[in-house]
Specification:
The protein is mainly β and about 120 residues long. Strands 1-2-3-10-5-8 form a 6-stranded antiparallel beta sheet, with no helix packed on it. A 3-stranded antiparallel beta sheet has the order 7-6-9, with no helix packed on it. The termini are far apart. It is built from no helices and 11 strands.
Length: about 120
Amino acid sequence: MDLTNLNEVPPFITKDGSEIRELLAHRNSALRNQSLAEARLPVGGATQEHFHPCAEEIYFITHGTGRIRIESETRDVKPGDAIAIPPGRKHKLWNTGREILRLLCGCAPGYEHSDTVITEK
């Protein structure tokens, strides 16, 4: 059985500038086709716009408020919101609130730096 605890997982920075804690992925479990991580964006922070050629993603907002843009559509997000991001779609996330924006990120296949294409400088 693979069991991890969020408070015991070391953070790392993804290619888009997010701080994530990878809960389950091929690097630390028997999973081979998906990953689950918690991402955190500081107050006033944002990811770099990017897309994933292969991976589809699900963002699930757990704390804070923000704004997400997928291609040309922009929406405000809050705790309880789930966002589907298909492969190849450019996306960017901003923290617009007064606390750290925290979200769960599911990727299939699992997250890899090599599957992240930055589209802004």
